[in-house]
Design brief:
The chain has seven helices and 13 strands. The protein is α+β, with helices and mostly antiparallel strands. It has a single domain (3-174, 225-263), classed as Lipoprotein localisation LolA/LolB/LppX (outer membrane lipoprotein receptor (LolB), chain A), CATH 2.50.20. The protein is globular and about 55 Å long.
């Protein structure tokens, strides 16, 4: 299913529900305003504290990144691991420049969707930013026939220094079903085709670090929904998520907390250039 079609249909549904009760705060109204805000994000600076489940264990990381949405450019740094990534197709093609903190300690060019950069990661650098978050919520609801009825608004709450609308989504019918692999399909292509979570599909089928073609005719267990439960804190001023936690049948599988968020602040000429004196490439 085309993601653009899904988003358009989802936004149309939100619009229909958002203003039924003027003055009342509802999940539909909050989500509709969030989507409007996401569409207007041209540049983003933020810090992110991530917690991700990998093979039944949790890995945490603190990073900072800059994202320009069009043309897409990314600068990412994890200061504690001394890892830097720069993605700028205008200067460096479709590969990312990576400065790792391991031998030979030199900058290398890597495929952002390849085995090395994706190893033990839930997402690639292509998913950094708010567009992917919005798309993920739309995918969740596209697979859920009860849609907005499974969202609950829990009032305002403080999170990461922001005053937020607290939304919770849960569908107790979350389950797995069989899928027979076709010609030249990967775990990611199957997840995109079925509008389900890439990581959850990989985790269920012991494919966490398998990014190649799957054996035709093999059977995968795929989730029927994008996630079972989600908790969202959406800042009342920015109308953007500042905290997201997603759950499957085993519990929490990822959470992301955002701070120091700056949107639509112009970047300097060298913010996406390896020659920036503050970068280590």
């Amino acid at each position: 299913m085309n993601i653009k079609v899904i988003i358009s249909a989802f936004c149309a549904v939100l619009l229909g529900f958002a203003f039924r009760n003027p003055g009342e705060i509802t999940p539909a109204k909050v989500l509709h305003q969030m989507y409007d805000s996401i569409k207007n994000v041209k540049t983003l600076r933020t810090k992110v504290a991530a917690l991700e489940r990998i093979d039944k264990k949790f890995s945490s990381a603190n990073s900072e990144y800059l994202v320009q949405t069009s043309p897409r450019k990314v600068y990412f740094i994890n200061r504690s691991k001394k890892l830097e990534i720069l993605y700028n197709t205008e200067l460096y093609g479709r590969k990312a420049l990576v400065k790792p903190n391991i031998f030979p300690y030199m900058t290398i060019s890597l495929d952002p969707t390849g085995n090395i950069m994706r190893k033990n990661q839930h997402y690639s650098i292509h998913e950094l930013g708010y567009t992917f978050i919005g798309n993920s919520i739309a995918l969740t609801l596209s697979k859920d026939k009860d849609g907005l009825n499974n969202f609950t608004y829990h009032g305002k709450s403080h999170k990461n220094g922001y005053t937020c609308y607290l939304l919770e989504y849960e569908n107790k019918n979350y389950a797995y079903t069989d899928y027979k692999v076709g010609e030249k399909e990967t775990a990611s292509s199957v997840a995109a085709k079925l509008c389900v979570n890439d990581y959850l599909l990989r985790d269920k089928n012991d494919l966490l670090n398998d990014f190649g073609y799957l054996r035709k005719g093999s059977v995968l267990k795929v989730p029927t929904l994008y996630c079972k439960k989600a908790i969202l804190f959406i800042d009342e001023k920015l109308m953007l998520p500042v905290s997201i936690s997603l759950y499957d049948d085993a519990g929490l599988f990822e959470s992301y907390d955002y701070s120091s968020i700056e949107i639509n602040k112009p970047f300097k000429n060298d913010d996406f250039n390896r020659d920036n004196k503050n970068y280590g490439f």
